[in-house]
Here is the input.
Amino acid sequence: MKRRKFLLLLGIFSSLASRLKSALRQGRIIMKKAIQTDRAPRAIGPYSQAIKVNNLIFVSGQIPLDPATGEIAGKTIEEQTHRVLKNIQAILEAAGSSMSEVVKATVYLADLNDFSKMNAIYAQYFPEPFPARAAFQVVRLPRDVKIEIEVIAVSGPEVMPVVK
Here is the structure.
């Protein structure tokens, strides 16, 4: 009886291993991991600072909170933009990526008249080719800040792509 159970379990594990290898070859395995760093503000709700799925990193919208104090950093759009981008940079580094790997950014502004000032600071953080981007004026942002930015990036070269 024990031998029969052993052979049954061996067959199940062999089948699972075969299916896993097949899924890997077809690129169907999804590895999802939450990213967390103390160098950026903690999430203030039921969300993660970022989620890494395979070689993509989805960074949650960042507002200008100082990670050490949890308070809003700066009163001007320039000061707040710097803080937001430093927070994003810290999260990307924790995920094994960088600002140069950002492929898409979405900028939410409390006042679209701040666009050119934000843009001047934004350009200091991203090398060419610049990421694709959208920018919107919104009615209100959390804690009445002037700016929120979310990004999507690819992970660094240490991750091996799945071969199809």
In short: Strands lie at 32-35, 50-53, 56-62, 102-109, 132-137, 147-154.
